[in-house]
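Step 1: inspect the first sequence and its tokens.
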Amino acid sequence: MPFKRINRPIILGIVGDSAAGKTTLTAGIANILGADRVLSICTDHYHRYDRVERAENGISALDPRCNYIDILEQHIHRLRDGKPILKPTYNHDGGTLERPVYTEPKEYIIFEGLLGYATRSMRDAYDVKVYLEPNEDLRVKWKVQRDCGKRGYDPDAVMRSLKRRENCSSEFIQPQRTFADMVVSFFPPIGNDQETGAHLNVRHILRPTLPHPDLTPILGTGNKKGFRLELARDIDGKPVDVLDISGDIDDKRAKLMEDLLWELIPEAVHLRENVGKFTDGTNEQALSHPLALSQLMITFHIVKAALGHHAI
């Protein structure tokens, strides 16, 4: 049966805790598709209170009550219907609420943030849902690097903030994992706990809610170095496919997988030089094959959704 291209914006959700890598993943996917075709919106801009008010009220930004969830819900559906919104603006550097911005939809829309799957109505609006779940020690290191390097925080203040947020994270952020089509987890290799960048391993938990790409041309060659795909049980006991990609995969093996995924999404803009790029802990540009392959796997689903392969 032929597929019919979807005549509306395709929406990707990327949810995860603070400093889980959402912005890096989003930027790479936008580069693959072409920045002029992608609208990226951070759901954390929908805060009800600024930083001072949150401190005064003793409420965390991770708490849905601290956010205009109903407005976010409306905006997701308006953009999905091809209508513009007045997008709120939260200044993460100063912790202040600023003037909203008139925003029109594009061909692809990425909503990334803490609470993107907070309601059923929101979840129903996405074509593809991803949850980022890095190793917790790694996430802490990423948060310290980001908040100290880019936002001017003191390391002790960052650690105190993480401690205060623990309960809210387990109560409000982590339960959203169950709604994702893909769970993406970066983690350091055995024997190198200090790795935080290019040589991290990644695990993709692929749920049967989406038709995932056929990787047998690569995985079925007998040479499985760098990759492993197996059937397993998720933490809820349900069957899933688990794809492991090693951080020390060599360039040749990584390119074989990248080439396969590019061939499966010829509709995407081929900005290949930008795939897998990120800013490391020394504020330098670096390349990660596991990151590149993660970005391409997710882009595969976005493009196929646009072509009607798994329309909702």
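Step 2: inspect the second sequence and its tokens, then contrast the two.
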Amino acid sequence: MKKLILSISLLAAVTAANAQTYATNWTATDCNSVSHTLFNTLDSGKIIVFIWVMPCASCKNGAKAAYDAVQSFATSHPGKVRMYLADDLGDASCSGLSSWVSSNSVGSTANMTIFSNAGNVIDENDFGGTGMPHVIVMGGTDHNIYYNKKGSLTNDLTGITAAVNTAMSALSVGEAANNAKFSVLPNPANDVITVEGLNNVTKIDVVSVSGKTVRIEKVAAGKTSVQFSLSGLASGMYLVKATDINGNTSIQKLVKQ
């Protein structure tokens, strides 16, 4: 119960300025000739801090903030948070990008994955348009974007770190949801959902990623399923929380289309 409350509280760290969006998949080869598919990496439980650079002098502060944020998790969560750095248009060489990272004291190239982005296969326009530098934080099997800023706004170690923490919290909630004792159908859903497999449940709450309860449904004694509408709710991820007669809770993730 305490873990659930903590997880939902941490989800509330997402601010309106960094409203939830979703990543677009891509497959690209890095500067060490290793192929990466974004969704495969996110589905494996990794959190990606991704930055596009030109490279340019004005890109270095945002790049260093991203690097420092990732490194702050290196000891507590080894291998969990990864930094990807790519040329914005795919017209910079791997050696040129590595030299830029080193000469601008961004960080160690050994602690990041660099893409020349040849052919512009990692298209910045798929992630909200161009702007140098451009930093995004992604995580979860829903491929959520928890941070998406450009230009001087990316010189934001605190904000990037907070977004990674929020992604971490969402992953924890997802793990708890996988053990839920009820099901939500359909999922994703457009309007009406049915919550099935209830056992001594008295109440169903639908909670937004900001931690706000947006629906409350009372469950009559003895009922094992309940149906209700999501009408009026914005598209995105929600938590469906069931509370039983003893105050125990169980959760499932829900995607509203």
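Step 3: confirm your contrast with the notes below.
Confidence is low (pLDDT under 50) at residues 1-20. The chain has two domains: 2-176, 183-256.
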